[in-house]
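As a warm-up, study this chain.
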Amino acid sequence: MIWRLVQLKFQPDRVDEFLAIWQEVHTTIRRQPGCLSLMLLRDTSDPAAFATWSCWTDRRALQIYRRSNFFGEFWPQVKTLLREPAQAVSYEQIEEITAPQ
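Now compare it with the structure written out below.
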């Protein structure tokens, strides 16, 4: 599995625009082939900073999503709202440790 963290720092007066876009796209992102989970997180010390945390079956599924027409349509809108470039990193899951039963 691949976990993808994308950090997004918005212009403070553009946060509501981002949240409106998010409401329009999050279900479609989650329904992309290979997307296992998706979360939107807000920085506890900066209310205009967010991160998306998603899990994908493999690198190929993530690449297909990032090359999709859907991504190509909404991502440019999001980029115009940022105060600095997004930071993205992908992690390959090595192990999962769950709470004892």
